């Protein structure tokens, strides 16, 4: 096997290019779609008939933020089952509210709400921008959507000076309604643009009365420029605040990756790359290999595009041609979400025997007897054997007994489908911060693990008495 270290630069660079172009779940799915298409995958649509064949490669998208990809083994027969991975595309962020127009003390502000369990103090004093999707009217009978990612800082959430709040370093208190609203501009700038403030019908670049009441006219003009449409044609949008600082390699020996959204776009990227790089053995496989990238995991997965929905069952049923129940009994799912590496300044927060490392520690198997993770002794055995064959080290993670445990899509899918499931992850620091951290070696092991899972699952699965 080629040394992992020999391909570090290429693999890390590929991931950095991906995540720097992926500020939102919508961008993530769009990039995955392009990657799959270039590798010969065909898009299926939910409202059309499907014709699934051996050696076929397919994907289906939900809401532009969830994607499921499948590669059918050359020796697949109905009922043989699936080898699946499941990750998610979303991360905690600040999202623009439906009515974002806000001003105070001669500042124009953008009204935002908190998505997921972010570490919100890390969003202060960052150079922020906007990214997401915009719906606009192209003609009287055509409405288009466009992905936007403004490539310059336009927003900032400023902290309060220590002179005005002397106990800031001892007691950080954030009121999420009052303290996280972002500054867009000075109010005096708005007065210079009188034409955009007139409440007139949509015409040319003028803003419609309804939308100009909801959002600052300058903001709508900026979005219109990105979409190459008139500001008055904008109907609605999903927009989030995003950091403008690009993801990069750092550390004394370039051993770290500094980036936002490692949780969980790193898992999503590695799962798709693993699926694609396993295709050279697809002809001999009797299973369907698949990668499920859900949205809304950070807020409970209860959406049409989340792991709690019927999307998974509907998709798998259609892939199996009425052999769904038999297929599920022969299937296996790897739920992949990032894991907590041991923190050098807070090591006491880990169980002493469960301290995942960023230094050559490898993939983390996550266990919780209260089923916050779906791992069992059997499913962990499957994964550990696959990792051994793939030359990837394995670490164990279990929370302290006196601390609550987070969860993933694993228990959701496992319970809804009755499918064997294991929870794994790649260790990282600063999870849910606007700027997270992992190691380049961790990325290498993670990529190798996913490829090894797709290539070796059937052999390992059949070798275990179950």
From TrEMBL:
Q: What's the EC number here?
A: 3.4.11.21
**Which terms does the UniProt entry file under GO BP?**
proteolysis
Report the GO terms under cellular component.
cytoplasm
Gene3D superfamilies registered for this protein in UniProt: Aminopeptidase i, Domain 2, Zn peptidases
Cofactor(s) required for function per UniProt: Zn(2+)
Molecular function (GO) terms for this protein are: aminopeptidase activity; metallopeptidase activity; zinc ion binding
Keywords, alphabetical: Aminopeptidase, Hydrolase, Metal-binding, Metalloprotease, Protease, Zinc
Catalytic reaction list: Release of an N-terminal aspartate or glutamate from a peptide, with a preference for aspartate
Q: How does it assemble?
A: Tetrahedron-shaped homododecamer built from six homodimers.
Q: What is this protein called?
A: Aspartyl aminopeptidase
To which species is this protein native?
Adineta ricciae
């Amino acid at each position: 096997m080629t040394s992992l270290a020999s391909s570090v630069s290429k693999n890390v660079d590929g991931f950095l290019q991906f995540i720097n172009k992926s500020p939102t779940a919508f961008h993530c799915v769009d990039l995955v779609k392009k990657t799959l298409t270039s590798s010969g995958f065909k898009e299926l649509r939910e409202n059309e008939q499907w014709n699934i064949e051996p050696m076929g490669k397919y994907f289906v998208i939900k809401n532009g933020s969830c994607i499921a990809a499948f590669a059918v083994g050359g020796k697949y027969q109905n009922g043989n089952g699936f080898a699946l991975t499941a990750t998610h595309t979303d991360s905690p962020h600040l999202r623009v509210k439906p009515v974002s127009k806000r001003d105070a003390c001669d500042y124009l502000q953008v009204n935002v709400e908190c998505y997921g369990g972010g570490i919100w103090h890390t969003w202060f004093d960052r150079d922020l921008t906007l990214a997401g999707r915009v719906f606009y009217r192209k003609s009287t009978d055509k409405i288009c959507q466009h992905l936007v990612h403004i490539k310059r800082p336009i927003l900032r959430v400023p902290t309060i000076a220590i002179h005005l709040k002397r106990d800031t370093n001892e007691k950080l208190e954030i009121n999420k309604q009052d303290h996280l609203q972002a500054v867009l501009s000075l109010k005096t700038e708005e007065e210079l643009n009188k034409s955009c403030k007139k409440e007139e019908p949509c015409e040319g670049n003028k803003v419609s009365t309804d939308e100009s009441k909801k959002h600052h006219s300058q903001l709508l003009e900026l979005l219109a420029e990105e979409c190459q449409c008139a500001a008055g044609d904008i109907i609605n949008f999903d927009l989030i605040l995003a950091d403008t600082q690009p993801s990069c390699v750092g550390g004394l020996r370039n051993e770290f990756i500094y980036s936002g959204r490692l949780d969980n776009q790193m898992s999503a990227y590695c799962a798709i790359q693993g699926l694609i790089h396993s295709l050279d053995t697809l002809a001999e496989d009797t299973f369907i290999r698949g990668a499920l990238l859900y949205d809304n995991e950070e807020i409970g997965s209860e959406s049409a595009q989340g792991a709690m929905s019927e999307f998974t069952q509907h998709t798998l049923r259609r892939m199996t041609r009425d052999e769904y129940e038999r297929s599920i009994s022969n299937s296996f799912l790897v739920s992949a979400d990032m894991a907590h590496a041991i923190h050098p300044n807070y090591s006491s927060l880990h169980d002493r025997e469960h301290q995942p490392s960023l230094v050559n520690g490898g993939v983390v198997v996550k266990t919780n007897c209260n089923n916050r993770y779906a791992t069992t002794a059997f499913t962990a055995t499957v994964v550990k054997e696959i990792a051994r064959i793939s030359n990837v080290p394995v670490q164990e993670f279990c929370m302290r007994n006196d601390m609550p445990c987070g969860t993933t899509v694993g228990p959701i899918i496992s319970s809804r489908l009755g499918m064997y499931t294991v929870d794994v992850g790649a260790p990282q620091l600063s999870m849910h911060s606007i700027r997270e951290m992992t190691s380049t070696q961790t990325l290498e092991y993670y990529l190798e693990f996913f490829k090894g899972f797709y290539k070796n699952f059937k052999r390992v699965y059949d070798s275990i008495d179950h």
